[in-house]
């Protein structure tokens, strides 16, 4: 308790000495922390970041309580952990630095960059699904969220590529070697293709649904992933979330659903107004038919 009181006493004595540059310094650090949180949010990195935060808090508490041995061990864990983190997140760090090099200052300061990317990913996915539904090509796309799907990714082939309608169509093209199984999308990139997913054991689902749909529902039961399925037989588009399957979706509904699930903080009015207008016109036209 004394330590806490001392801390606040010291803090209040320091207040008059704070300069403008100190405030700028704090604001810059806060902004950088915010950017890092936005970047790792809803990824496996977020879970690891939480663990690091817990260890940091424990290290602080043990220092305050003068628990030297435990504090020493936690300090060592943090030292080794930092090196381990750099090794584990080497691909993500490399991608982040590459992105940083490509952006201008305005883009670096903008918080909308990640949102624009997820919008683009959704647009490309919907475009691909619409075409593949018409062509009767079977599709199984898994959007990873906070629960890592690494063990399922391992059953497939690493792709690590930018999401585009053309690439998705190529991956599911019936004569392509990776068309069987699922594509996993992580952090707005195609992480892997040809992945084997767990089948649902739910006996209540419609008997006209085969293994592609069962696999899509299965992975949505064991994780928080959003799964898009296109039936090879009927061309219908479905989405599985938390073990529930929404069937017979129009491309526009699919887009709305994906935006809701994958970019919930996004408001309609912040999206490209021209695109919204075009979509509205198309919806009106479809309604008149
Ligand atoms: N466990 C699994 N993980 C990933 N993909 C799977 C799995 N099981 C089956 N699939 C995919 O589903 C395909 C078989 O689909 P099947 O026709 O049995 O299912 P369906 O739900 O009736 O789909 P469709 O309506 O498209 O015919 C396989 O070729 C494979 O690509």
3D architecture notes:
Catalyzes the condensation of 2 ATP molecules into cyclic di-AMP (c-di-AMP), a second messenger used to regulate differing processes in different bacteria. Keywords: ATP-binding, Cell membrane, Membrane, Nucleotide-binding, Nucleotidyltransferase, Transferase, Transmembrane, Transmembrane helix. The chain is α+β, with helices and mostly antiparallel strands and 289 residues long. The protein has 2 domains: 2-101, no CATH class; 111-264, DNA integrity scanning protein, DisA, N-terminal domain (YojJ-like (1, 3-Layer(aba) Sandwich). Helix content is 58%, strand content 12%. The protein has helices at residues 2-14, 20-40, 44-64, 68-88, 90-102, 105-109, 113-135, 150-153, 165-172, 211-222, 251-262, 273-288; strands spanning 139-143, 157-162, 182-186, 189-195, 226-230, 237-241, 244-246. It has a 7-stranded mixed sheet, sandwiched between helices. Strand 5 (226-230) and strand 6 form a beta hairpin. The N and C termini lie far apart (73 Å). The mean pLDDT is 84. Adenosine-5'-triphosphate binds at residues 138, 140, 180-182, 196-197, 199, 209-213, 215, 231-233.
